[in-house]
Amino acid sequence: MSNHSAANPTRLVQVRTKILKQNDVAARRLRQRFRDHNVFVVSLVSSPGSGKTMFLEQTLASMRQRGHRVAALVGDLATENDAARLARAEVPVRQITTGTVCHLEAEMVENALDGWTLEELDYLFIENVGNLVCPATYDLGESLRLVLFSTTEGEDKPLKYPTIFNTADIAVITKMDLAEVVEFDAVTAHKHIHAVRPGMDILEVSAKSGTQMERWFHRLETQRNASMTDPT
Amino acid sequence: MSIIDIACEESRTRGDARVIAVHLKIGRMSGVVSEALLSAFELAREDTLLAAAELKIEDMPVRVHCPQCGCEQLADSIQCLCCSVCGTLSPEITQGCELEVVAMELEPMEVV
């Protein structure tokens, strides 16, 4: 260990640097690029198996049918299965295989956009790796962050992962078609969401039966229009 | 790892000083668990300028602006963002998301 002699005095220097500064800088760069090209970017985070891919598949197909130009980036540790599923919506999809990294970072998104013409897009969806911990701290330059959890996961998910709920803009409760079977208590779930993020918007959907999906598409359109007229 | 990158850069700009300690602020809402960070740091610091450095972590509890009290208050917990004094739900976090290197203890290299 160190020698604290008079000849080698220890100095305390102020630094004040954010540990994720590099990611924040890349995310700012991305946000500006998206803004310059009027691309509305939505990221999705959830635990594995919450129904992110199904929700996104329906969203991509329907938004395309509504006349929007949409594309998706999908993060996965090892497989390209999700990209293959999403490609069924007949929109451009790219896989980001993260290897051992359990979350997406802004620079991965930047690299994945290589060769894509952003002018040709209205919406870009980024599906994060299934994980409710690490993705919370990484800004990807998105305009809207969705945290999804399914009725089969239990009502207390927000209390177990408060940070991710706190960084998201909308909580989406998925698999509402199973709510009755699994005795999902929506009132308690809402209470928990609002305890960790007071006032948070909540959508209760079923991508399978289509419940409230229309409302979600409409919400996307409204928010994109609002962001385009927002001077800030 | 970014903490090591930040500290090495800082040390280099100050004449390759030896890093004795790195002071961090870690908010309870940052998503980082101090114990996990400390054990990861043990491994990551090997063969760097920080090989003998210590992490000194200041744990930052969550504070919110309480609309009812009209001032900053401690939140109940990260599971309940309500004012610990009056219980009002308070969405505006004023402290507790920190993930920062705030200072470093440096020692000049011995001249041989």
Topology at a glance:
The complex is a heterodimer of chains A (232) and B (112).
Chain A: E1 11-18, H1 21-36, E2 40-46, H2 52-65, E3 70-76, H3 81-86, E4 93-97, H4 106-112, E5 123-127, E6 144-150, H5 157-160, H6 162-167, E7 170-174, H7 186-196, E8 201-204, H8 213-229
Parallel strand pairs in A: 2-5, 2-6, 3-4, 3-5, 6-7, 7-8
Helix pairs in contact in A: 1-4
Chain B: H1 2-13, E1 18-27, H2 34-44, E2 54-60, E3 63-66, E4 71-77, E5 80-83, E6 93-95, E7 99-107
Parallel strand pairs in B: 1-2
Antiparallel strand pairs in B: 1-7, 3-4, 3-6, 4-5
Structural features, described:
The complex is a heterodimer of chains A (232) and B (112). Chain A is built from eight helices and eight strands. Chain A is of the alpha/beta class and 232 residues long. In chain A, helix 1 (21-36) packs across helix 4 (106-112). Chain A is globular, with a radius of gyration of 20 Å. The termini of chain A are far apart. Chain B has two helices and seven strands. By secondary structure, chain B is α+β, with helices and mostly antiparallel strands. The mean pLDDT of chain B is 91. In chain B, the strands form two sheets. Chain B has a four-stranded antiparallel beta sheet, with no helix packed on it. In chain B, strands 2-1-7 form a three-stranded mixed beta sheet. The interface between A and B is medium-sized, with 35 and 35 residues.
Order of helices and strands of chain A: EHEHEHEHEEHHEHEH
**Tally of alpha and pi helices of chain A:** 8
> How much β-strand is present in the residues of chain B?
35-45%
Number of helices of chain B: 2
Total strand segments of chain A: 8
Arithmetic mean pLDDT of chain B: 91
Largest interface, chains and sizes: A-B, 35 and 35 residues
The tally of strands of chain B reads 7
Shape of chain A: globular
Going by helix content, strand content and strand pairing, the class of chain B is alpha+beta
> What strand line-up does the widest sheet of chain B have?
5-4-3-6
Determine Rg of chain B (CA atoms, Å). 18 Å
